[in-house]
Design a protein that fits this description.
By secondary structure, the chain is of the alpha/beta class. It folds into two domains: 221 residues, Rossmann fold (3-Layer(aba) Sandwich); 153 residues, Response regulator (Rossmann fold). The longest helix is centred in the last third of the chain and has 20 residues. The radius of gyration is 21 Å and the shape is globular.
Length: 404
């Protein structure tokens, strides 16, 4: 793996080269960024308008132009449908001159768009989905997975619960690529520690009635009920568990819970839950500065995906500026050569497979008594170092790593 010093020196050389370039080469005389996300469905609170606003803030903070060309922003609702997402990505790349697509909430949509990006040699930066296929079978020089993935979540929450003695699991899993992939990753952690998975209940995206699934969970006798869903599905499942009294005898493990979810559930029901996140708004002065600016525009604190969209967009624009062009290959090389140090991560970098490697964090949801102000929801438990947080490269199936 390239050393940090090597990446830094390479980055400096690329920036210098870009600075002295006589004529920056920008296709169509505009750099166009597309936010392809859930604007109206179950994940719209986690992504949606908040994701758009984060990218808009990055564009504004960058100055509105790069390499002498204006930066344009376009937005589309993929409706949580992979075919819709792929079709719009193809249209954006082929007809509308979009240079980079970001957010990509919903793993099915992200995987579909990754295939289009690889074929058309255009950039995507995934912040809103967890499927590790983005940096494995669907990898390419043009795809970057930024904020989190299923491996990092399993290696955080799943590992912590197992080490605390929670060895018998039952999963409540949303039935598409995201939930299934998350269940598979946590299953690996549980079984490696000598635990057992006693079963799972697969439910459709957007389920409101969890009564039959809760009965299956109760009947299983599992110590741990793993909630392999997020957004509205996770909120409904956690609320249903409280209504059924499941938490009196069994423990919930929220495998992907967001600050927005906690805001909706409330600390009475969510207090004490363990979760893994890449970023939290109240970590330090830098995170709070960004979060407060964001709050003034959106009316809520940003989550890790929305913060990731800002960070990723800035890194992409800096790469264009340094390379002196929006040529996808030149930008890809520059993005991978340049370390990432900002309010999202102080020590990030992009690996060969497109995984942006950074620290992850294990948190515990505060009780109402512990919370001191609005959006004061999480207490830090542990830092998972960058090199341990994500799937090791020697386990990669990405052709850029294996040479296949």
């Amino acid at each position: 793996m390239t050393s940090f010093l090597g990446r830094l020196l390479t980055s400096s050389a690329l920036i210098a080269a870009g600075t002295v370039a006589a004529n920056a080469q920008v296709s169509n005389d505009v750099v166009r960024i597309g936010v392809l996300t859930d604007m109206s469905g179950i994940y719209s609170d986690l992504a949606g308008d908040g994701a758009v606003e984060a990218v808009r803030m990055a564009i504004e903070d960058f100055g509105g132009e790069v390499a002498g060309a204006p930066i344009d922003l376009v937005v589309y609702d993929h409706l949580n449908q992979a075919d819709v997402a792929a079709a719009k990505a193809r249209e954006w790349f082929d007809v509308d001159g979009v240079d980079m697509i970001t957010d990509l909430s919903n793993s099915g949509a992200a995987l579909a768009v990754a295939g289009v990006a690889k074929e058309m040699q255009r950039h995507i930066i995934v912040n809103g989905s967890s499927n590790i296929g983005i940096t494995n079978d669907a990898c390419s020089p043009y795809a970057v997975h930024w904020a989190y993935d299923a491996y990092s979540l399993a290696n955080g929450t799943g590992k912590a619960v197992v080490e605390d003695g929670g060895l018998d699991w039952f999963f409540m899993t949303v039935d598409f690529a995201f939930g299934i992939g998350l269940e598979e990753q946590v299953t690996g952690v549980v079984e490696a520690a000598g635990g057992r998975v006693l079963g799972s209940a697969r439910h459709p995206l957007g389920t409101t009635d969890f009564s039959s699934y809760m009965l299956q969970a109760q009947t299983s006798g599992a110590e741990i009920i793993g909630i392999a869903s997020t957004g509205g599905d996770a909120i409904n499942a956690i609320n249903a568990a409280a209504e059924f009294g499941i938490t009196q005898n069994q423990t919930l493990a929220a495998l992907l819970l967001w600050a927005n979810d906690i805001h909706s559930i409330g600390l009475e029901a969510a207090g004490g839950l363990m979760l893994t996140n890449a970023w939290y708004w109240d970590m330090n002065e830098e995170t709070r500065e960004f979060a407060n600016r964001y709050y003034e525009r959106v009316g809520m604190m940003p989550n890790m995906s929305q913060a990731g969209n800002y960070s990723a967009t800035m890194h992409y624009l800096k790469a264009i500026e340094a390379a002196g062009t929006d040529d996808p290959d030149a930008v890809s090389e520059t993005m991978r050569a340049t370390p990432i140090s900002d309010f999202f991560t102080p020590n990030g970098y992009i690996r060969e497979d497109g995984r942006m490697v950074h620290d992850m964090y294990l948190w515990k949801v505060k009780t109402p008594e512990e919370s001191q102000y609005d959006w004061d929801y999480l207490a830090p438990v542990a830092t998972i170092p960058a090199e341990e947080a994500f799937r090791p490269l020697d386990q990669s199936t990405c052709y850029l790593v294996t040479g296949g």
